[in-house]
Amino acid sequence: MADKQKDWTVRIHITEDGDDTRAEAVLTTEDASQDASAVTGRGVAHRNPIDRPIPEIGDELAASRALEDLAIRLHDIASDDIVELAGPVDQGGSRAWERP
C-alpha cells in the first residue's frame, strides 16, 4: 500500500504595537477530497517596561503562545470529531459498544 502524503501549512502573522506583540498562527489544511480549512491560534506578549527593548523576544513569546493555542484548538477539533464520528460501524443497529 502506498503512503498518502498530506501537506499542512502553518503561517505565523506577527504585529507589534509599542510594548505589545500579537501573533496569529494559522493552520491551513487541504485535501483533494475536501475543501481547504483553517484553524487559528492567538498569542500575546507584553514587554515589562524595566526590560530592555528586544523585539525578537516578544515575537518569540507571542508566536509560541499562538502555536500553543493552535495546538489546543486542533486537539479540541479532533476530540469533537472522535465523539461524533469515531467508533465501530453500526452493524444492523447493534449498540453493543455503548455503556449501559
Topology of this structure?
Elements: E1 8-17, E2 20-29, E3 37-46, H1 55-85
Antiparallel strand pairs: 1-2, 2-3
Region (Disordered): 29-51
Protein name: DUF1876 domain-containing protein
Core attributes:
single chain, 100 residues, alpha+beta, three-stranded antiparallel β-sheet, 1 helix, 3 strands
Helix fraction bin: 25-40%
Series of H and E elements: EEEH
Widest sheet: strand ordering: 1-2-3
* Unreliable spans: none
Tally of helical segments: 1
Region (Disordered): 29-51
Pfam family, one: Rv2632c-like
Protein name: DUF1876 domain-containing protein
Summarize the structure.
The protein is α+β, with helices and mostly antiparallel strands and 100 residues long. Helix content is 31%, strand content 30%.
Description of the molecule:
The protein is α+β, with helices and mostly antiparallel strands and 100 residues long. It is 31% helix and 30% strand. It is built from one helix and three strands; from the N terminus they run βββα. A three-stranded antiparallel β-sheet has the order 1-2-3. The radius of gyration is 20 Å and the shape is elongated. It holds the Pfam family Rv2632c-like. Residues 29-51 are annotated as: Disordered. This is DUF1876 domain-containing protein.
